[in-house]
């Protein structure tokens, strides 16, 4: 059931104007509004599979919707999209997945709710605008393709690697399972919002599970129970639920994060089941009807050493999952965070695994008070506390970027993105930088070698809180390094020199 929406606010006007501009641009240019998503640059082709799996019902908070009285934060199933290195069948090729999940009207209704738009007419405008913006956009990955064959995986260690001239991950993980990354989207995000980033990692040998959170933070999602039942979840916030006593803002955020953490646990549980030979069962119980080759995934995944990654609200979640990591249910041994949230609750600093925190330029430069301290100072303290425990950690800023630069949005509509955000770094260069530093970090976790900006020392210790003239950059000129391990004369890992 789609929930009723709140009152219109000043933010409504901005959102409606943007959608009106999109419609106007369509009729002026008479051409598709969005660029297609580009193919991936790594060594491997990329497959994509939607997986939904029932789980033991969990109620993370007793609050119910004002309309209907149903429990709001009740976990019944987990839904995620797998991006993975693939061996596609040239004869049988199912249609590509749409970038905007279906039905479009549900996703548009969620974005209308985010903008506090309640008018049915304006909600139709949102649906039309979303259709114009990216309704026909597809993800350039092979739907339900076979996992990279064992032979190709092993032969990868004998080749010279990706198009970027780096060694393949197979060289670093010869004889081991494919490394697993679990990705958590931010507020208003979807499991597909970061498809280019996830696909790029998959093309380099990683299996990435991008979760679609049903905690109310996304625009909309259809819960498909294995027994045939369906229900719609549209974006909701604290004002849309009631409880006795009334739930506070802090309690609501904590409950959402608990819900998200439960979804991470269930995602890893399903991946473990596939890896342990239960792939056929997972396929049969998947209402999304994908995963035909799961039986061949047995023993192919490294589910005992997962990397947790997330953006914004998802970064706050990633930090939270590290509280007791690694553990039985959360075997997380490294983490990557992009722009940890400023309004999503306290940031966990009890971390004992290698950690990479990356801020966009706007996230670092925009001042924000966070529990009585500057947000930048809090994030820096989190990274520094990891270092103080003798564990490797970095805190970086990618200059001239904005909060959504890690998403697909700047690729789909670069001109509109630059107009709205004022970014100066080319959107493809920005995403390449995000992918590159993530790849270097994931390789570091496996071989201890510091490459690229991770080999740099601190260049801007206090960032925006320091004195003018004290903010240095790395050799590329793209990164400020706020926290980093000391640079030793001789690194432990291999040095890769491009020729």
From TrEMBL:
Molecular-function GO terms, alphabetical: 1-alkyl-2-acetylglycerophosphocholine esterase activity
Keyword Lipid metabolism among UniProt keywords: yes
EC number: 3.1.1.47
Biological processes annotated in GO: lipid catabolic process
Residues spanning the membrane: 12-30
Assigned keywords, A-Z: Hydrolase, Lipid degradation, Lipid metabolism, Membrane, Transmembrane, Transmembrane helix
Active site: 312, 339, 403
Catalysis performed (reactions): a 1-O-alkyl-2-acetyl-sn-glycero-3-phosphocholine + H2O = a 1-O-alkyl-sn-glycero-3-phosphocholine + acetate + H(+)
Keyword Transferase belongs to the record: no
Entries under InterPro entries matching the protein: AB_hydrolase_fold, PAF_acetylhydro_eukaryote
Family from the record: Belongs to the serine esterase family.
Protein name, per record: Putative phospholipase
